[in-house]
Every structure is written in C-alpha cells, then in structure tokens.
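Deviation from plan, reported transparently: S-adenosylmethionine complex.
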Amino acid sequence: MVRLITHNLLACHARGCTSNNFPLRFSDAQIETRKADFNADFIRAFMPKLEWSALVDAAKQLGDTSLPLEAPDMLDEEFLKNLHRVLLEIHIEEGSMTCPNCNHRYPISNGIPNMLLAEDEIA
Amino acid sequence: MLPTPDLSHLSSKDYELIYEPAEDTFLLLDALEKDAEALRATKPTVCLEIGSGSGCVTTFLNQILGSSVIYLATDVNLHACRCTCATASRNKTIVDCIHGSLACGLHHRLKDAVDIMTFNPPYVPTTSEEVLMAQEKRDIQGAWAGGVDGMDVTNHFLSVVKELLSPQGRFYLVALKANDIKAIRQKMLIENGLKSNIVLERKAGREHLFILSTR
Ligand SMILES: C[S@@+](CC[C@H](N)C(=O)[O-])C[C@H]1O[C@@H](n2cnc3c(N)ncnc32)[C@H](O)[C@@H]1O
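Because the crystal trials were delayed, the predicted structure below was used instead.
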C-alpha cells in the first residue's frame, strides 16, 4: 500500500544513488480515499519522524494543498485530523515514483509499490 | 491466548504461490504474545516485518499493539504482498506492504527508527545455486531456500538490523537448530553488535525451531 506516510519513508536505493535520493516524485498517480481510525497519539508521536517539506510537496503533487508549509508548534485537534487524513487516508493505487537524483522509476500497481532492483539480488 | 488472525480468505491456490503459515510462524506469534506487555511498554510507533508472506505475523502484531503504530511489511514475492494486504483488511487492520527485498528503500529514512522488527527468513539449507535462483524468481521457493547453512538471506539482513532499530527497538528472528544457534548469536554479537537471547524454542517434526530476539 502506498499512502503518504509510506511515501515519506521510501527513498531510492539504486546502487550509488545516495544523495538527493528522497523524496520520490509521483507521476500518473491514481488515488482513492479510505477512512482510517483517527488516533491523535499516533499522529503526535509520528510527527518528529516526518520529513515535513517532502510531505507537503507530495500532497501537492496529488492535488492536496491543505498542509501548512511549516509544521506548526501547536498541534490542535483540527490540524491533527487533517494530517491524519493526508497521511493515512489517501491511497495511491496506480502510478509511479521517480528518483529526483538518478531518475529510477518505481511503479505502483494495485496499491503495491515495486521497490525491487535487479541489483538487490542476494549473491 | 490471542486468536490467530483470520486467514480463511486464503486458499490452497494461494499456498501454491506463497508460504502457508506453519510451526515456525506460530512459534513467532507465541514469542510476540509472550513479550506483548514489554512490547507495549516501549510505546512503539514503527513495526517492520521482512518477508511477510501471508501477512499473519504483521496482522497479529497489529492485534497486540493497536492503531498507534504504523505496520510496514516487505516481501520479494508479489503474491505474498497481495496476501499480506488482504489478510490485514480481512482482520480490519492496515499494513503498508512493499514489494522489495529486505528493508529495501526504507533503509535511508528508517535509520534508528524501527521499534519492532521481525523476520521469519528462508532458513532451509540448500545449495547456493538454489538460493540464488529462488531470490531471482521470487516465487515460493524463496520462502525456504536459504543457501549452504540456511543463512544466506538472513546474514544479508543481519548486517543492517542495528542501523534500523530505534534505541528501545527489538528484532525477532526465526532460526533452526541446524543453522547453528550458538554460531548465529556469536556472529550477531561480534559482527553485527547485536546482543540476543532465546525467547522460545520448540521441536516440530524434523525441525527444531528457535526464536531469537535482540533484547
Ligand atoms: C518462511 S517464509 C515466512 C512467511 C511469513 N512471515 C510467516 O511467518 O509465515 C519467508 C518469506 O520471506 C520472503 N523472502 C525471501 N527472501 C526475501 C527477501 N530477500 N526480502 C524479503 N522477503 C523475502 C519469502 O517470499 C517468504 O514470504
């Protein structure tokens, strides 16, 4: 499954591609929204692990501009609920993610991202 | 005793393509259940299962720890990824499943961030050709073919475990007596900087199974 939380955790891992390899850029994304249980504690605990500007940018690529450019210091209920929706309820079902550095393309099909590389075969 | 996840949506057709939960899977579930209180006490936010197969283990963890955690899973076998997602939704939980090898594209962003990590690896001793072929074909053979001492795939992963684990993080690994438990633990300590203990062991038919954990 690719949600924006997953996208925020994925980087290109092609051999030699070690800088500017995050965030991956969406193209041809087809999205679906599905309700998920709201858990304010989880959102709060996960905030420090997010790369905020990557999240704002990825949401924008999917047509969602509801997030502030800078993460706020005060996390009120309204903000947390919106962040919950953006992070956990938008599912990218089809499309692809491209590395900003080496342009490697990782396809998404039926909601499953394909992060395999020919070179990760275990020798 | 927590119930094992509902797997009734999977059929023998699926088990021609992916690993059917067996004694090793259930021993891992028992180990996680045994440690449930301790796991909850670490207030985890990130769980990662490598080689999720049917999705039984990740869904079980979800039942123990609830919705304040993100559950990530990877598998090289595409059908296993599909089944992992199907098992999660069948049991009204959610898993973010990635088709990839080991911790693949997650490594960069999940340094020092994974609170609970599990791997029931392909551990059956085979020839090196067999493990290479299985890893390349990404089919059911990849569920068990483990190379000369059954440790080829596991050893690859052990070298990144410490980097991924959060300060309070724990890693659970399934292994066979035939893999040489003492040697694995020694190697984990010396080469990978991972102190381990035996959480559970059980004889099941010809297999003598162990669950090791890093705490
Ligand atoms: C013994 S099965 C365990 C399946 C499931 N976790 C369970 O306990 O029932 C091993 C799983 O690891 C997967 N696998 C094998 N090599 C892998 C790799 N390099 N990266 C990720 N998964 C892998 C197999 O496809 C298979 O699903």
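The two ends of chain B are 23 Å apart (CA to CA). We consider this an acceptable substitute for the interim report.
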